[in-house]
Design goal:
The structure holds 2 protein chains of 2 kinds.
Chain A: H1 11-42, H2 50-80, H3 88-111, H4 134-166, H5 169-172, H6 175-179, H7 189-220, H8 228-262, H9 270-285, H10 299-328, H11 337-359, H12 362-368, H13 373-397, H14 406-431, H15 446-471
Helix pairs in contact in A: 1-2, 1-3, 1-13, 1-15, 2-3, 2-4, 2-8, 2-13, 3-4, 4-7, 7-8, 7-9, 8-11, 8-13, 9-10, 10-11, 11-13, 11-14, 13-14, 14-15
Chain B: H1 2-28, H2 35-64, E1 82-89, E2 92-95, E3 99-101, E4 104-112, E5 117-122, E6 128-134, E7 140-146, E8 150-156, E9 168-174, H3 177-190
The chains are: A mainly alpha, B alpha+beta.
Chain lengths: 480, 191
Amino acid sequence: MSEATISPLPTSARAGVLTYLAISALVFVLMMALGVLMRVGQADWLWMPPDIFYQVMTAHGAGMVGISGLAGSAVMWYFLRRYVDLTVGILWTNLALFLLGVVLILGGIFVGGFAGGWTFLFPLPSHGMGAWGNVGAACYLLGLMSIGVGFLLLYLDAARAIISRFGSLAKGLGWPHLFGRGEGEPPPPTVVASTMVLIINTAGITAGAVVLVLILVNLFVPTFAVDPLLTKNLIYFFGHVFINATIYQAVIAVYEILPTYTKRPWPSSRVFLAAWTASTIMVMSVYPHHLLMDFVMPTWALIIGQVVSYLSGIPILIVTAYNALTNVYRSGMRWDIVSGLLFLSIFGWGVGIVPAIIDGTIAVNNVMHNTMWVPGHVHTYLIVGLVAMLFGFMYHVAGQNGATKTIDKVAFWVYAAAGMAFSFMFLLSGYASVPRRFAEHLPEWVEYSASSSVFGALVLLAAVVFAVRFLTSLKTARTT
Amino acid sequence: MIQGTIFLVTIVLMAVVVGVFVFIAINAGKESVDYGPVQAKAFGIRTGLFWVIVVAGVLITVITTLDLPYAATRGDVAEGAVKVQVDGRQWLWTLSQDSATADDTVVFEVTAGDVNHGLGVYDPNMRLLGQTQAMPGYVNSLQLTLREPGTYKLLCLEYCGTAHHAMMSNFEVTAHPDHASATITQGRDGA
């Protein structure tokens, strides 16, 4: 869609999107600071009591996942409203429920002492061993519930709007064009991606809500027995889908913005539609790869986890990333902070899924699961992929295209290099069998954390520049 | 050591991705060319790439699923294996026995009494040999052949609360008597 044909954002909608992004910029910086703090603690440069370390770890995990969801949904909402009629009131309702959830989560962690990890594996919430009680755990779980309800409303509203404009979710995914001879043009990439995201996230959040209610009831009525393996399945289904949906929302920024630089179209081709339909199924069916070390799971489910892990790389690497590379190659595009961050983000996503897919192999998982290998691939595609994508979008919304300052260039290169180095240190630690989620490291592991702390501090510094540049440009932000 | 192979494969594949992106980035800002031929050529390459990935994926899947670590949990235990019952609780491991002989096949029958834990078996060089989850109400059996004598460490690999990192136990593997006498004989011959 050309800039000229885009209707202006209503004032309240513009304020809503900018508020989402301003909060996201601040929270990203804050959560990165917590991440660096953990690495500094593991490097023995700062003594942190274990209960505090694990509280920070819980806040870092929940905070990063939650804020990535919020920022990703801002990208989706900002572009999707160009094609369908979204409800501004729902945008604000989601934000209100999100902030209520944040208050409850922070209260549960830093007042109630909850340190059960962002994945809150049952029955750990009720076994604080004096570090936290049921009230702290309940606050945390209710906080997640509040955030989930907000997002569910947002996605249901998107579903309503897409069905109202295109006729059905199947049409939103472009199935008539994929499987037959659909009339007219297929839906644009933004609509296809949004339809996929709302489908998977509605399923994921619903599963999350079910498991949260089960655990909440069990907290106060322990005789209400809940099966740990069932809850683990539900939690990983919810967690996997939600964190993956963040990048599938954010990539809409690449589809919409990058072609304005290359002056080349990025239409919904049949391959594109097939990739997104495949991703819809695979993101929901791949979650058993988190359970490969639960030997009691059915073998067929675990093999599906491995096979779908491999398959899920195809749409990302040879459709999304490949299309981006084709679109950019010899396009004569100009490089600035927006195009640079968006290009970097596709690289981060593509390179980050390599160790992730390898870890999806059962034989590999047997020696890499819950080692630092896992945060290694997660941080590659979150720092260099997702967060770069979101900061690129923020610069775009702030109208900074072509207005790249020297400080932006320096921050970009520091962020890219230090982001890769920081993530690589996790991978190297995983190779050395260093466990993840350890408050205190053995002497032979400390070196990895020390260098990682330096790289982490550089990433943080660059992110502060991005955030400050965005926040100080809000007055000149786009009106369409 | 499987970790070495994993790391090498990962680095090579990541380097390929880096190389491709650097190549494209260098060429992105160059004088614009007609998009049609670029697309036609790129999509032709992609079709080939797709089939290479599919064939490689099928082969790797078949090879890597021939020997899964789930056999002992399904009752397929090696003959003469030493069975060790392992119970994880915040924050200690209780073992039915804490030693074996080098080259023994040991089956760790792992469960938990309170929350989720993860049993990770580390060799004397602190290299992870294998792991399984420890879960209340379930028994996961991890079968390993412990070849090298020495002190193995059992670490918790699933976050289980505020002393999770301290949940470590030792498992002693003593030299096999035959191997020990062989070593002595060799030593005497050499002398």
